[in-house]
């Protein structure tokens, strides 16, 4: 039934209302309008109050002046029955004896009883009265004053209409009651328009960014040509897109290279197993097992390296911070290379050096540099280690063919091999130097290549020494 749709329609309206109320433009306009309304209302109330106070003070002064005149008149001579007045309607006066008998009064108060009781003492008493028979229901401000004369004590009553005060205050209040909402509304419209214009470029940037997908990361925010906050926001967004595009490109390249590196040993393992299955009677199962085991170990090493790099990119590789004897690590790796028997190892220039870091990661650093040197050396790998000016400097050199100058900038990239013709069995997966650089940077050091070293290649690592040394 159509009537059953109203809860959904109400919920949809509520949702859209909440979305509208959550807009920055609406919140700024609402806050500015509310603040302005509060200021205007408070100002209006203050203006009306001050206006009424000033008018009442003026009326009070006029009453006191009139009372002073009547005081002089009463003390000099007996007052006439009808008191002179410039305005018999607006200003009323009476001179009354203490017993309440009216001696003199304004013409409009003829036959009117005393306007009020006699005040205590000689102080002036001011009050508001109304309902006088002779003047209708108008409200008056009444001043009563007791005086002493030659004929005895008298009381002077002077009254003035409050119509002018109340009418003036009412007109001002009504005017402000109309003006404040109108001004507030106009201000709300103005603020809404100004905020809309100010946020227009932001919305444009948001729309442009929303159109950028993973396949269009080369797009950028159009420059505004200005040098304000919006322009800086656009430049910051473009810088973020540069970093995002670079990270995405590196990730895609990393995935592609990792897939290629993992496919090669898997393809060899599958080929060996398929050949053995095709010729099961003549297959050398022991040789196949050894070969598959070697390939499996190579796969495990590649996966471990990939996992380490992935965790490092994610920022989850921290490592400990302790004093580490770097020379002990170098000596152990040199012994391992000697035991392998592929190259001669020279550690005569290795001296004591202690650094602050993670022992496991520093061991991997030295091992990767040693294996890289041994892989490319013709006959000898040379280690040097010494402390200079608060830094431990480690070099690992080989006497191989060296690294071409044009390739020295990319030697630390992942899956980079200097000799593409060599297989990963001989040349490794191209991750060792990338991991080494990552470890060095995580320890706040630097790693580079000595471009002038001949023959072969020499890698230089600089790490800060430990604060305290045990040697």
Describe the structure concisely.
The chain is of the alpha+beta class and 471 residues long. The protein has helices at 6-21, 24-76, 163-210, 229-278, 285-313, 326-340, 359-376, 424-427, 432-442; strands spanning 91-97, 102-105, 125-130, 139-149, 152-161, 322-325, 344-350, 354-357, 380-388, 391-398, 446-449, 457-464.
SSE blueprint and pairings:
Layout: H1 6-21, H2 24-76, E1 91-97, E2 102-105, E3 125-130, E4 139-149, E5 152-161, H3 163-210, H4 229-278, H5 285-313, E6 322-325, H6 326-340, E7 344-350, E8 354-357, H7 359-376, E9 380-388, E10 391-398, H8 424-427, H9 432-442, E11 446-449, E12 457-464
Parallel strand pairs: 7-9
Antiparallel strand pairs: 1-2, 1-5, 3-4, 4-5, 6-8, 9-10, 10-12, 11-12
| Relative strand content | 15-25%
* Biggest sheet layout: 5 strands, antiparallel
Q: Record the strand order, biggest sheet.
A: 2-1-5-4-3
Report the order of strands and helices.
Answer: HHEEEEEHHHEHEEHEEHHEE
Gyration radius, in Å = 50 Å
Proportion in helices: 40-55%
Global mean pLDDT? 80
Gap between N and C termini: 90 Å
Poorly predicted ranges (pLDDT <50, ≥5 residues)? 420-427
Could you give the count of β-strands? 12
Based on CA inertia axes, which overall geometry fits?
rod-shaped
- Structural class computed from helices and strand pairing: alpha+beta
Number of helices: 9
